[in-house]
């Protein structure tokens, strides 16, 4: 699928795989070097009528290369472009061209508000915005500015269309929140997050402070100051504002490479690191809303245009393997293997490549033979689910070509239609740290199927890189080969100068480089977003509790008795400084544990597992986890290094449960 920009709109070119799908046979290094001087490349489309003229490779210019890539590494990119082009030449009659009307600005901003969970700020439900008021009260200044900008655009568009929808001004909503904050919250639960955050308050009104409603929350005194630390305590957009104000006269050079660049890391957080998959679905939904707003705010601050591409409906295959939507594939696979989250064909291709050994020179770079790839595609489509396909006939380079073909042929790109442009825009951010921050938010925003499949791909690519001494494929080589397969559907048909095309090549390859190298960091949910979710839950609980008390009073119940019972519910039979941990699936189902400064989640698990006997004794570290449930969070799986006393102070009304993690 490709996108063709034009004044009339966007032409979406989709194609479906058939037996004519081919991969291109390649030669080894020596032949490649002989052909290097005459190598041709170019952007092209799947539509013959729109094919862009192939142009000569622009001369190498180190000054515009983000990673100081040498010509040999760049050659991998252009060679892969050629291979993709040739493998697509026989697919013309399988195409389907859909013309999509370019949405106006108001429509895009309206879609953005829906994606951010703020659809009730406009339209027929504009008056029913209590939930949005709670949500907006937790936003930082830059996040609020991003929301306000989109609301104003939608409002102006609706007025032009003479629609009688009343859209509240975001500033008015914040004003209402300010009034509500003057009232003292009910009970310790509603105070737990703010109490913990207030210790981070700063002396000044600095741009890097995290504003939640009217509160100004500073990063803790021991917050990371190193250039190699990724600060998850403070909004990325707020950090960008601060950096712009303090670095106006400095130009940071982007010199990241395997040997010279700093190795970015996440500093330890005593309340525990939260990774994607650790939160309950309802809280994860809130995380995604906040991540979209934060990404937009970050791009706004840095002057980068962020326009989501609305997914369009096109005719797609509803069965098979290649050219089938991920969701359809997973539905097929789950009928065979319940709980499958990564397409079985995808897993099998990776497994087949690894069976051949990851030390094979030129792995991923050398394509399989065209005729074999064509025949293998046909056989797989017919025999894969029957279990009769002969995997012994698949050579290693053929499996690698099939893997790339699978990714390239997805009707919707693996990085998603909605956010592919945003992924590509990462290359325009000034520093590696900002690029990583943006990628972190984008990974969070991916649909589950896309994110899980991308994670499996990146873990495999890292294993390839780990064998670089033998296979001669370091992280840059791998990134150069994979970039066209992940970004091609957007790059096709994009008219640009040779210089810009070269920058796009290095830029998209740099993005894949970062995804591979920092994948563990990128699958982390920033603490400032988790704290915003905690704040939302606290405010919602406070409102629910207030409504319940009002109801009880109307029903003539003893309000004082209710409040006393409510206050003591979580403290019953548990002395001060002690938590009760539940383990319903273990032989020791409950244990009171004294909190100390050094007690970690791993220590709690160890105490339970050490007392297991019989069948349960087979339980090992990594099979069961300690969860924080309730209070100001829905459900959160704790990492081993979580300090329990610090987390207890953040969420004193939580329950602590040991259980296995859903697969």
Task: Describe the fold and architecture.
- The chain is of the alpha+beta class and 663 residues long.
- The protein has 3 domains: 2-102 and 310-525, Rho GTPase activation protein (Phosphatidylinositol 3-kinase, Chain A, Orthogonal Bundle); 105-301, no CATH class; 573-659, Phosphatidylinositol 3-kinase Catalytic Subunit, Chain A, domain 1 (Ubiquitin-like (UB roll)), CATH 3.10.20.
- The protein has helices at residues 29-36, 71-88, 105-115, 130-136, 141-160, 170-181, 187-198, 236-246, 281-301, 326-336, 344-355, 370-383, 396-409, 420-425, 432-445, 448-466, 468-471, 475-491, 498-517, 519-522, 527-554, 559-568, 601-609, 644-650; strands at 2-5, 10-15, 40-41, 55-56, 95-100, 210-212, 215-217, 274-275, 524-525, 578-582, 590-594, 625-630, 633-637, 655-659.
- The strands form 5 sheets. A 5-stranded mixed beta sheet has the order 11-10-14-12-13. Strands 1-2-5 form a 3-stranded antiparallel beta sheet.
- A hairpin with a 4-residue loop joins strand 1 and strand 2.
Keywords:
663 residues; alpha+beta; Phosphatidylinositol 3-kinase, Chain A; Ubiquitin-like (UB roll); 5-stranded mixed beta sheet; 3-stranded antiparallel beta sheet; 8% strand
């Amino acid at each position: 699928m490709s996108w063709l920009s034009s004044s009339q709109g966007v032409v979406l070119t989709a194609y479906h795989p058939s037996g004519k799908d081919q991969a291109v046979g390649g030669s080894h290094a020596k032949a490649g070097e002989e052909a290097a001087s005459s190598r041709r490349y170019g952007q092209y489309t799947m539509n013959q009528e729109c094919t862009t003229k192939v142009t000569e490779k622009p001369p190498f210019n180190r000054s515009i290369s983000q990673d100081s890539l040498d010509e040999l590494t760049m050659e991998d990119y252009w060679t892969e472009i050629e291979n993709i082009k040739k493998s697509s030449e026989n697919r013309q009659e399988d195409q389907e061209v859909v013309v999509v009307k370019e949405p106006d600005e108001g429509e895009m901003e309206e879609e953005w508000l829906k994606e951010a969970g703020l659809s009730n700020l406009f339209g027929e439900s504009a008056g029913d915005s209590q939930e949005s008021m709670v949500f907006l009260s937790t936003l930082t200044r830059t996040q609020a500015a991003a929301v306000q900008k989109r609301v104003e655009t939608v409002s102006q568009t609706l007025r032009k269309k003479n629609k009688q929808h009343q859209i509240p001004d975001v500033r008015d909503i914040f004003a209402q929140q300010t009034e509500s904050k003057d009232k003292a919250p009910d009970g310790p639960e509603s105070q737990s997050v703010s109490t913990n955050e207030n210790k981070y308050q700063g002396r000044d009104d600095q741009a890097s402070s995290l504003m939640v409603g009217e509160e100004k929350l500073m990063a803790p005194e021991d917050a990371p100051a190193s250039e190699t630390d990724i600060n998850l305590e403070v909004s990325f957009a707020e950090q960008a504002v601060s950096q712009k104000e303090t670095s106006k006269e400095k130009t940071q050079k982007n010199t990241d490479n395997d040997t010279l660049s700093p190795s970015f890391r996440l500093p330890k957080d005593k309340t525990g690191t939260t990774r994607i998959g650790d939160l309950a679905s309802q809280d994860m939904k809130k995380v995604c809303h906040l991540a979209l707003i934060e990404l937009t705010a970050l791009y706004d601050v840095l002057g980068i245009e962020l326009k989501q591409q609305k997914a369009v409906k096109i005719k797609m295959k509803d069965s098979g393997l290649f050219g089938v939507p991920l969701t359809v594939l997973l539905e097929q696979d789950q009928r065979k293997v319940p709980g499958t989250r990564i397409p079985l064909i995808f897993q099998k291709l990776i497994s087949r490549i690894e069976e051949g050994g990851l030390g094979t020179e030129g792995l991923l770079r050398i394509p399989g033979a065209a005729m074999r790839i064509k025949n293998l595609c046909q056989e797989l489509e017919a025999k894969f689910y029957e279990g009769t396909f002969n995997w012994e006939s698949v050579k290693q380079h053929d499996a690698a070509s099939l893997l790339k073909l699978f990714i390239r042929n997805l009707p919707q790109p693996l990085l998603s239609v909605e956010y592919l442009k945003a992924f590509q825009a990462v290359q325009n951010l000034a520093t590696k740290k900002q690029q990583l921050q943006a990628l972190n938010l984008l990974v969070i925003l991916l649909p589950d199927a896309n994110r899980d499949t991308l994670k499996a791909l990146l873990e495999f690519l890292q294993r390839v890189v780990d064998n670089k001494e033998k296979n001669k494929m370091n992280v840059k080589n791998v990134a150069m080969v994979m970039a066209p397969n992940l970004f091609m559907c957007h790059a096709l048909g994009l008219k640009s100068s040779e210089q810009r095309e070269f920058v796009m090549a290095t830029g998209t390859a740099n993005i894949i480089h970062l995804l591979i190298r920092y994948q563990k960091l990128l699958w982390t949910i920033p603490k400032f977003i988790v704290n915003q979710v905690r704040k939302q839950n606290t405010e919602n609980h406070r409102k629910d509790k207030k409504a319940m008390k009002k109801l009880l009073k109307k029903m003539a119940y003893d309000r004082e008795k209710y409040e006393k019972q409510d206050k003591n519910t979580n403290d019953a039979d548990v002395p001060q400084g002690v938590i009760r941990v539940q383990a319903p699936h273990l032989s020791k189902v409950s244990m009171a544990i004294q909190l100390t400064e050094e007690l970690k989640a791993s220590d709690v698990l160890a105490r339970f597992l050490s007392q297991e006997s019989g069948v349960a004794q087979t339980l090992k570290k990594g099979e069961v986890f300690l969860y924080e449930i309730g209070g100001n969070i829905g459900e959160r799986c704790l990492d081993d290094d979580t300090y329990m006393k610090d987390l207890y102070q953040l969420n004193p009304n939580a329950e602590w449960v040991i259980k296995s993690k859903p697969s």
